[in-house]
Amino acid sequence: MIKYLGSKRRLVPALGRLFEASGAATALDLFTGTTRVAQELKRRGGVVWACDSARYSEVLGACYVAADAATIDEAELDEALGLLNRLPGVHGYFTETFCVKSRYFQPFNGRRVDAVRSRIADDFSGSWLEPLLLTSLLEAADRVDSTTGVQMAYLKSWAPRSYNPLELRAPALIPGTGYSLRADAAAAAASVGSVDFAYLDPPYNQHSYFGNYHIWETLVAWDRPPVYGVACKRSDCRDPANRSRFNSKPRFRDALAEIVRLVDAGILVLSYNDESWTTLEEITELCAKRGAVRVLTFDSKRYVGAQIGIHNPAGKLVGRVSHLHNHEYLVISGEQKDVMRAAAGVTDAGDACCEVVQP
User: Fold this and answer.
1) Which end of the chain is more exposed for a tag (fewer CB within 10 A), N or C?
2) What is the pTM for the complete model shown?
3) How many other C-beta atoms can be found within 10 angstroms of the C-beta atom of residue 359?
């Protein structure tokens, strides 16, 4: 799975237990990102909708959530991966933009990305193999990049992993039923309809995922956009249409209230942390309109950029990070008996969390 700011890797087991203990059969992961949570719900037997506005997220969802491991032709997938792994590199847009004009990847790996992505476009576009091969390429590129995990900048010196050769591997697919949907959150909530369990992990600060992961957007779209700045961001990162309401402090609360109102789910679980623009009290008050509320809190390490410190463009350490940990919250709402049963599935399992008692 690709490195991702805001990934809920540490919360995935707890979310899986919440889903299972609630007795749910259907689930919606509305801001799915890398699909970690959607995958876990699918592993636990759920029919899952993975929704996001990002192109790369739609591809990951098509691979890990919509594809059924029990029905794919593994031999055909292995043959396609073997073909792509044998391709010689070609100096193209990706190499020039992300290895020469910027330094996200070493050029020998950039040339391999150019060759592999072009062959996928030529030979596999529209086929059942396309999202699986694109996912394999995304993950292969992520394993050899030279960043801290976001594409706002690259490291001053090459990361040790960047010297490794690009290698495509078969994605670890999951048996079961699911769907991948690329749409605005409000539109997705309306189109999916009623589910037993919904998980919301919206952005809650000014940092846009569209800008943070612009290379993955370009790699999936394969549209060779004009770029700007040292980071070689897509020019459409400047387009207000590509900026989420959740990245705007004046609009965030209304946007969140609309989604909570629109989602039709027996149990709704909302992720939030204590670095957000809003407060836990405001979040619980909003969710309380749906019924009973319970809150689970988890101590969590902050993102890797906080761990390595604050540096200027020349790579010199210039500031001190205020804290290395934060609190992640899961706010559970719905009918009281359902909420209590779901929360007990986590607290009784001895997870490293504690329940926040609501007044």
Assistant:
1) C
2) 0.89
3) 4
**88 shares a domain with 106:** yes
The verdict on residue 280 lying in a domain is: yes
We report the CATH number of the domain holding residue 342 as 3.40.50.150
Q: Is residue 64 part of a domain?
A: no
Rounded CA separation 300/325 (Å): 5
What percentage of the chain's residues is helix, strand, coil (to nearest 5)?
45, 15, 40
Token pair for residue 290? 């749906």
In terms of phi and psi (left: phi > 0; alpha: psi -120 to 50; beta: otherwise), the region of 133 is alpha
Place of tokens 């979310």: 15
Question: Is the same domain home to 220 and 315?
Answer: no
- What six digits make up the tokens of 236? 């459409």
37 and 138, same structural domain?
A: no
Which residue in this structure is represented by tokens 């309401």?
245
Neighbouring-strand partners of residue 270? 200, 331
Using DSSP's 3-state secondary structure scheme, residue 294 falls into strand
Alpha carbons within 13 angstroms on the beta-carbon side of residue 42 total: 27
Write out pLDDT tens, residues 34-54. 999 999 999 999 999 999 999
Amino acid at 70: A
Answer whether 340's CB lies under 8 Å from 292's CB.
yes
- Enter the tokens of residue 156: 């001053």
pLDDT tens-digit series, residues 229-269: 999 999 988 888 777 777 777 788 888 999 999 999 999 99
Locus of tokens 């001190």: 320
CA distance 351 to 172: 26
Is the same domain home to 182 and 298? yes
Residue pair 159/146 in contact (Cβ under 8 Å)? The answer is yes
In a domain, 67, yes or no: no
Q: Report angle CA 246, 258, 15 to the nearest 5 degrees.
A: 75
- Contact between 130 and 124 under an 8 Å Cβ cutoff? The reply is yes
Domain housing 231: 73-172+209-243
Distance CA 306, CA 303 (A): 6
